[in-house]
Amino acid sequence: MTESIASWMTLTALFASAGWYIFRSTERSIPLIVTSIMSGILCLFGGFLFSGAVLKILGSFENPIMPALFVWLGTALCIFLHTIYSNRKNSTTKTNERTYE
Q: Is 22 helix (H, G, I), strand (E, B) or coil?
């Protein structure tokens, strides 16, 4: 079981990111849920990219939990940045709608 903890941590990063996007969606229709899951997968890929970049800079680790933690950190960073971007985009869209009315 201890050999697969890193894999389980990476899998929970996927579930957490997809769950975050499903939780934040205003509607619960099938297309929006699929879009939320795809956004979660893309953030997981961002986490893999972050983990790979950190491991390239720092070198390899003997403990497999460290790369899994970097995947978690990269996924959380991607979710955070995407949420800020979407909030800012929504606020400017609402401001523009008030301006043109």
A: helix
Where do we find the tokens 């955070």?
Answer: 80
Rounded to an integer, the average pLDDT of 35-59 is 93
- Extract the tokens encoding 1: 């079981």
Global confidence as pTM? 0.81
For 48, 49, 80, the CA distances from 92, given in Å and listed in that order, are 31, 30, 18
CB neighbours of residue 18 within 10 Å? 19
Domain boundaries defined on the chain: 2-93
The pLDDT score that the predictor gives to residue 84 is: 92
Work out the widest C-alpha separation in the chain, in whole angstroms.
61
Other residues' Cβ atoms within 10 Å of the Cβ of residue 76: 18
